[in-house]
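fyi for ur records
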Amino acid sequence: MRLKGEATIHFLKTNLLSLILGLLFLGGIQLMLNTYRLSRLVSIGMDTVIILSIILMFMLLLISGVCLYLFQRNAGRMIYLSGILWFPYYYIGLQIFNHLLPITDRGDVPPPVVGLFMIASMMIFPIYILAALLIFNAIPQSAGSNDAKSVT
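which gave:
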C-alpha cells in the first residue's frame, strides 16, 4: 500500500515528465514548421537551417529518451499516463507560441505537406513513449533475474 505522499510524488513525476515530453515535441514541430522564418530572421541559407533542424530534432529525441529513462525508475504504473498526458502540455505550449509569435510575413507560412508530417508524428510519438517505457521497465528486471540465476 502506498503512502499519501508517495502517490503525490508519482503524480508530480508523471506530470513533469509529460510537460517535458510535450515541450520537446513542440520544439521539434516548431523547428519543422518555422524553417522559412528561421532562415529569414537569422539570415542563413535554407539548407543550413534544414540541416540544423534535423540535428536538433534528433537531439530532442535523445533528450526525451533520457528523460523517459530517468523518470520511469520507481515511478509505478502512473508513469504510463505520460503517453497521453503530453498532448495537453503540447497544445498549451502551441497556443502560447502562436499567440506570442504570430506569422506576420506571408512567406513564413509552412507548406501544406508539413501538416501530414505533424499528423504522423502525433500518431507515432505516444507509441514511442510507451515502447520506451516498456523497454526501460523490462531491462532492470531481466538484468536482475539473470544475476539471481547465476548466483544459485
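The first helix runs from residue 4 to 33. thats all i got for now
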